């Protein structure tokens, strides 16, 4: 199954990935990470197509990893 792993303490909660996901798989949660940001959460277990858009637009290296992403 396609999956996005969130490395919550690398995330600044900018929500760029939330806006980029065409399937509503990502949301900003209520919990704060170690840096004091509300980090993103993956909620799209059966909807994620592993398109990689969230990874591509994220400005924080390592904040998220897409599993199942097709090679291009
Ligand atoms: S890989 Fe694509 S479908 Fe999956 S969460 Fe990221 S943007 Fe959304
Ligand atoms: S994962 Fe990246 S793009 Fe998404 S909210 Fe966190 S820092 Fe922003």
Notes on the protein architecture:
The protein has 72 residues and is an alpha+beta fold. It is built from two helices and four strands; from the N terminus they run βαββαβ. The strands form two sheets. A two-stranded antiparallel sheet has the order 1-4. A hairpin with a 5-residue loop joins strand 2 and strand 3. The longest helix has 5 residues. The chain is globular. One iron/sulfur cluster (SF4) binds next to helix 1.
List the helices and strands and how they pair.
Layout: E1 3-6, H1 16-20, E2 26-32, E3 38-42, H2 53-57, E4 64-67
Antiparallel strand pairs: 1-4, 2-3
One iron/sulfur cluster binds at residues 11-17, 40, 58, 60, 63-64.
Stretches where pLDDT falls below 50 for ≥5 residues?
Answer: none
Shape: globular
Ligand inventory reads: iron/sulfur cluster
Helix fraction, binned, reads 10-25%
Radius of gyration in whole Å, from Cα? 11 Å
Question: Main sheet?
Answer: 2 strands, antiparallel
Strand residue content: 25-35%
Mean pLDDT: 94
By oligomeric state, this entry counts as single chain
The string of secondary-structure elements, in order, is: EHEEHE
Number of helices in the DSSP assignment: 2
State the secondary-structure class: alpha+beta
């Amino acid at each position: 199954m396609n999956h996005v792993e969130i490395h919550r303490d690398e995330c600044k909660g900018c929500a760029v990935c939330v806006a980029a996901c065409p399937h509503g798989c990502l949301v900003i949660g209520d919990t704060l990470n170690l840096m004091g940001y509300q980090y993103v959460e993956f909620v799209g277990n059966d909807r994620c197509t592993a398109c990689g858009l969230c990874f591509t637009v994220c400005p924080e290296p390592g904040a998220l990893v897409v599993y199942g992403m097709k090679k291009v």
